[in-house]
């Protein structure tokens, strides 16, 4: 049975009255390999997540679990990857079938995906309210 939440370990780096900033390390699959330092292909990126402050005894440097509902993670994958792919293919194949040249069809498809991401960016505040992370003590 799959977990209802996606969890990452993080460290509190800033505490404000209404926001707690937690830093998580996102690792590539090979980053945890014991030989990762030798081959040089391991990648790890640090990300800061703003979490609404909740009641608790939070301290700087404290390790916490950052949680997000799994359904929100799936929705994010759809918004960021699946829908843009469908837009790209639909515009590309549709314009190509309509008789437009390959170069023009390709450029129009890229422009359509750029427009899609612009619309997502314009609605970022609404999306930010839907994707609420929360933390719990480890």
Share in helix: 40-55%
Structural class assignment? alpha+beta
| Low-pLDDT stretches | none
Individual helix count: 4
Neighbour order of strands in the largest sheet: 3-2-1-4-5
Evaluate the radius of gyration: 20 Å
The number of E-state strands comes to 5
Summary tags:
138 residues; alpha+beta; 5-stranded antiparallel sheet; 43% helix; 29% strand
Word description of this protein:
This protein is of the alpha+beta class and 138 residues long. The protein has helices at residues 36-39, 70-97, 102-122, 124-130, and strands spanning 5-15, 19-27, 44-52, 63-69, 134-137. It has a five-stranded antiparallel β-sheet with strand order 3-2-1-4-5.
Spell out the blueprint of helices and strands:
Layout: E1 5-15, E2 19-27, H1 36-39, E3 44-52, E4 63-69, H2 70-97, H3 102-122, H4 124-130, E5 134-137
Antiparallel strand pairs: 1-2, 1-4, 2-3, 4-5
Helix pairs in contact: 2-3
Short characterization:
The protein has 138 residues and is of the alpha+beta class. It contains four helices and five strands, in the order E-E-H-E-E-H-H-H-E. Helix 2 runs antiparallel to helix 3.
